[in-house]
Amino acid sequence: MDRLADEIESVLFLAREVMVYQVPPRTSTAGYKAADWNVEAFVWKGRLRVLEVGERCELRLEDPTTGELFAQVTYVTPWTQVEPVLDSSRYFVLRVEGEGGKRAYVGMGFAERGEAFDFQRSHIPTNPSEPAKPAAPPKDYSLKEGQTFKINIPGREAKKPASAGGGSGSGGGLFALPPPPPPGRKR
Questions:
Q1: Where in the sequence is the signal peptide annotated (predicted)?
Q2: What is the CATH number assigned to the segment(s) 4-122?
């Protein structure tokens, strides 16, 4: 049996309509900008399926009615084959590799930002051999017995406590009760 035929395909993402654009050569190392393309003149429109096949992922651009493959991007690590553009959350650049190692860079765009966001989250393959990192233990910010803290609020003066003799003095302060008696002693 063919090993590839036995691999299980899981659909990670499906977009019923994406547009593919011709991308001009990159002018800087910073990245691509969708503003440099003519986003009104796409070269192809169709369906995008993102599949997890064994240890790799495949982005398949297909005709929505016939299923005919327009282009496919296969990767294990997506960062080199899928690159978001710098100036929009709806557009990406895909590195498509053909037979003989030939590479082509094409733009891909979504009509809705929500679909683009879902795509960005879906095209990272899961790797069952990589254990999940444990979460850091929560920090304890509670005050321990005897600990105090002081908050200084800019623009506000600290109020001085009123005298213990009541508010009848000439200080004009707020009325304050005398401190409670020590434990075991009654008033």
A1: none
A2: 2.30.29.30
